[in-house]
Amino acid sequence: MKNLPDLEQLQDKPVVFYDGTCGFCQGSVQIALKYNAKQHLYFAALQSGVLEALVPKAQIPNPLPDSMLFYEKGRLYTESEAALRIAGHLDFPLSILAVFRIIPLSFRNFVYRLVAKNRYRIAGRTEACLLPSPEQRARFF
């Protein structure tokens, strides 16, 4: 396992946890990087060990869902709630997607799980995590 970052450094930062072997997840991370002009989102692969080191064990779903997770202000969000909270941090017009939080959670998560279950068919699988550019590297753990 790689050296973990100073967790105090990440404690107050919004962190996107993604499946490093999922092409769909990596594409989502690329979109978040491109449309987060404030550059305040941070990223860690689920395989990195950062999730277990940063988030209290009681908050981590077991087993981990087929999804991205989002950590913000001491809380871990899963499935559609995670995706829409991440969208809220993106630049306009993608930030508008956060309005879908008005849709009942059960329906949102049903749709999210359907996409997550088929994500490898949609975007493929990779053997390694994406390599961020030198400018982006400081936002990855």
TrEMBL record:
Source organism superkingdom: Bacteria
Pfam families referenced in this protein's UniProt entry, alphabetically: DCC1-like
GO MF terms, alphabetically ordered: protein-disulfide reductase activity
PANTHER family for this protein: DUF393 DOMAIN-CONTAINING PROTEIN, THIOL-DISULFIDE OXIDOREDUCTASE DCC
Name the record gives this protein: Predicted thiol-disulfide oxidoreductase YuxK, DCC family
Organism: Pontibacter chinhatensis
